[in-house]
């Protein structure tokens, strides 16, 4: 048990608090289904939290609560109706709500990674190229990008025979591991993970837990959705309940 020892204020200068890598304030999201009579689907209201370097915040809530929607809003895939999303990018907080597309793309290239639950398969693009792409986009030389992609695919137990193949025919778990390799290769300072272990067996789940722990150790700030209690316990430090007030009542 950690002890709290009172010290005189002058004993040592306090360590400067680490600034938040991600700061979310007052975020509202609803969907309007224009093709279905304009039905309004409230998802969350006033969502807010912050995540610092080396921290993992897990999103909690029942199916349909809005966890994936919140991650997609943080990545800029969905617009929000109100609120602020600030990401620390190249040492400065950058507001993503209302930001021009080129700024969002720059933040994604250098700072913000997103591992969706399912791989978006692009026909005829080899797995190794999918995994290398985030490094190439940053200007890393092709040889180095390839070597790092191979090392990560090997670590995730994707057999070398599959590296040159497009993942359309891969099993669900293989596709998920290619997706994880693509999401982890660039060592983003802020990472959004949507059920990255949902289709994995116990051995591969442990490897992904280790990858997440390595990312936290190098100082990544992570927001994750983990269906699996074992994964949550291994990597999560705090939890945030997603939902709107009507659903919570
Ligand atoms: N593109 C969309 N258009 C309209 N409604 C949507 C859209 N995406 C999500 N929703 C709705 O938003 C709500 C939240 O969905 P979301 O996928 O975020 O839930 P979740 O908490 O991730 O659930 P699960 O645990 O099942 O993955 C659901 O009612 C869903 O129908
Ligand atoms: Mg979801």
Automatic annotation (TrEMBL):
PROSITE patterns: ABC_TRANSPORTER_1 (PS00211), ABC_TRANSPORTER_2 (PS50893)
InterPro entries xref list: AAA+_ATPase (IPR003593), ABC_transporter-like_ATP-bd (IPR003439), ABC_transporter-like_CS (IPR017871), CP_lyase_PhnL (IPR012701), P-loop_NTPase (IPR027417)
SMART domains: AAA
Plastid among keywords: no
Top-level taxon: Bacteria
Domain ABC transporter: 24-249
Cited SUPFAM superfamilies: P-loop containing nucleoside triphosphate hydrolases
Sorted UniProt keywords: ATP-binding, Cell membrane, Lyase, Membrane, Nucleotide-binding
Coiled coil: none
Pfam families: ABC_tran (PF00005)
Record's signal peptide: none
One example GO MF annotation: ATP hydrolysis activity
Family: Belongs to the ABC transporter superfamily.
Protein name, as recorded: Phosphonate C-P lyase system protein PhnL
Species for this entry: Pseudothauera nasutitermitis
